[in-house]
Structures are given as C-alpha cells and as structure tokens.
Design goal:
Helix content is about 25%, strand content about 15%. By secondary structure, it is an alpha+beta fold. The protein is globular, with a radius of gyration of 22 Å. The protein starts with a helix and ends in an 11-residue tail after the last strand. The structure holds 6-diazenyl-5-OXO-L-norleucine. The site of 6-diazenyl-5-OXO-L-norleucine (DON) has 13 residues, from loops.
Length: about 260
C-alpha cells in the first residue's frame, strides 16, 4: 500500500500541475514519460514513511509580475523600464472590457507608522497615505553615463526593495570590482533594508567563515530560500554593446 500510494501521489502531483487540453497546453511528456524521471521519483519514496504532498503553491511559483527590460538602439538611445502590478495579480481587480489587472501599489505606502508592508519595509510619515500623493517605489530603472557623458550601462530588476540593492550591486561589480557584465549579474547578491535588521544572502553567497565573522560583528544573517532580483543589463564595450539577462530566471538578451 505504502509504495503504491506514494507512486499515485507523485503521478497526481504531475497531473495537477502539468496536464491540460493539448490544444492549449504544451506538456513536458518526454520528461514525464522517461525512465530517468521514473527512477528519480522512485528514488524519492522513503522506505518506511509517507512524503506529505507539498502545498500546491509551493510547486507552482506564481511570479510577482514585476518586469524589467533594458534597450539600446543603433544611435545609442537607451530605455530602462521597470513595470509592476506590485504583488501577484495586483489588486485582483480587472478592468471590465479592457482585460487587464489593476495593481495593489497602495501597499507601497506606509499604511500605519511602524507597520511593515508586504516586503517588511517599515516606513514613516513621509510615505504615509495622503490624497493625490504618490507612494514610494523601489523600482530603479537606471541609465549610467561614463565620465564623458556617454551612455555606459542600462540596468534594472524586479524584486521589491531588493531592486535597489540588486541594481547597486551590479553597478558596483562592474565599475569598482571590474567584473564582466555576465559575472556582475550572475554573482550572488546580499540585501539589508534597515528593518527587519537582517542581512539576507543568496544560498552559497557568503562563505561560512564570512557568515561567522559578520555574526561576531553583531549582524543577523539569513540565507534566502530563493533568489534575489532578475537583472536585465546592457554595457557599452567600445563601439558595441553587451546584453546580459539574469541566469536566475528565464529572460534573454538579443541584438539585431
Ligand atoms: O514599486 C515598488 O517598490 C514595488 N511595487 C515593486 C514590486 C516588485 O518589484 C515585485 N516584484 N518582484
């Protein structure tokens, strides 16, 4: 019973997530039907205990729907765009007849002094709600000029407050640490936003010795389960351009 139940559970987890009308849905059938995949699933069955089904949301990660793109044209004109609904599906309200969702950007205001918003940001009266006032945004679509005033970099990211730190880190990595743009985007990121007073770091992003040293200095550190940011960046290299999409997610870079 145990082994068969675990097999049925796994079959249904895939059915629930991947299967639908083939006229609408591209299903990963080659993978699902392969012997390698069957062996992998079989290997995950514990001989003497049940594996609880993870909550559905944990398997299907709905993005937060903030997107950044960076563009340079042949004349060197640049566009850096970050656009957002704020959190998943925004306010959950669609515009009848128009077919798009309204955002829930009100959460970027400080709704009450000392009360954290969905990103844990604790802000004061300067960002309190008032009629006609715009909420603070962490979105940082950025264009960097070189000292001669020529376009040097176009960069931005989604990620709530981590947008600010992710964009800063990529620029520092290129200008101060002389990394290639690919390395500057790929390398692990860290984040601190004053409150909660925690230094977040990506998995493997800090050496254990560094973590211990920082703890000894009085920092609280927290290794993220996921990743930080999704940078799309362009850098001038002589007369041409290098474009890099963050390996953390599914973006791309194209030149034509
Ligand atoms: O403007 C802001 O700071 C937030 N509304 C951005 C939200 C965001 O980046 C969500 N995405 N991952």
């Amino acid at each position: 019973v145990h082994v068969f139940v675990e097999a049925m559970r796994r079959a249904f987890m895939d059915r629930n997530e991947y299967l639908g009308d083939p006229a609408f849905v591209q299903m990963p059938l080659d993978r699902l039907l392969s012997r390698d995949y069957a062996a992998k699933l079989r290997g995950e069955i514990k001989p003497d205990s049940a594996t609880p089904t993870p909550p559905f949301a944990a398997r299907v990660q709905e993005g937060q729907h903030t997107t950044h793109y960076s563009v340079v044209d042949a004349q060197g004109n640049a566009v850096s765009v970050t656009t957002t609904l704020n959190s998943s599906f925004g306010s959950g309200v669609t515009v009848p007849g128009a077919g798009f969702l309204l955002n829930n950007e009100m959460d970027d205001f400080a709704s009450a002094p000392g009360k954290p918003n969905q990103y844990g940001l604790v802000q004061g009266a300067a960002n309190a709600i008032q009629p006609g006032k715009r909420m603070l945004s962490a979105m940082a679509p950025t264009i960097v000029d070189d000292p001669q005033g020529r376009l040097f970099m176009v960069v931005g990211s989604p990620g709530g407050p981590t947008i600010i730190t992710s964009v800063a880190e990529v620029i520092l990595n290129v200008i101060d640490f002389h990394m290639s743009l690919a390395d500057a985007v790929a390398v692990n990121r860290i984040h601190e936003q004053a409150l909660p007073d925690v230094v977040y770091y990506e998995r493997g992003g800090l050496l254990p010795a560094t973590v211990r040293q920082l703890e000894a200095m009085g920092y609280t550190l927290d290794q993220r389960r996921g990743y930080q940011g999704d940078v799309a960046a362009i850098e001038r290299r002589g007369d041409s351009w290098v474009g890099v999409a963050d390996p953390r997610r599914g973006g791309g870079a194209a030149g034509y």
